[in-house]
Amino acid sequence: MKRVVAALIVHDGQILACQRTRHQPMPLKWEFPGGKIEEGEQPRDALRRELEEELGIEATIGNEVARLTHHYPNGGAVELRFFEVREYDGEIENRIFREIRWVRRKELLELDFLEADRTLVQDLAAGKRL
Asked: Which of 43, 57, 66, 73 could form a disulfide with 90 if both were Cys (CB 3.0 to 4.6 A apart)?
């Protein structure tokens, strides 16, 4: 099973959402920034590394907000761990995504998120998490 970490970067009541490019798997879907945990890597360390690579920031990784497992129809499975990020050094820059956007909770529902993220997106929009 693939192990993945993602950040819920919160600023001024908004959450950062990122859109995949046309050339990535599941093209043009929206997601939260993050990525795969490498062998021997701790989840928070993996997320710090991914946020530096994708957005050019040095993040302070907060509490784990959610952990879920998603099984894709093709048989693949992923364990997702979402962490809160409210503090970081540096300016956010888009290094790999088609688009990045700060959105209010309810606006998350308007974006076409990855299937694995949708339950969390609904909880965030309803104010059940964070």
From this structure: 57
Measure the CA dihedral 105/53/46/71, to 10°.
60
For 32-88, write each residue's pLDDT tens digit: 999 999 999 999 999 999 999 999 999 999 999 999 999 988 888 999 999 999 999
Chain centroid offset of residue 85 CA: 10
CATH architecture of the region 2-125:
Alpha-Beta Complex (3.90)
Please tell me the distance from the alpha carbon of residue 20 to that of residue 111, in angstroms, as a whole number: 12
Count, in order, helices (H) and strands (E) of the chain.
Answer: 2, 9
- What is the distance between the alpha carbons of residues 106 and 89, in angstroms, rounded to a whole number? 27
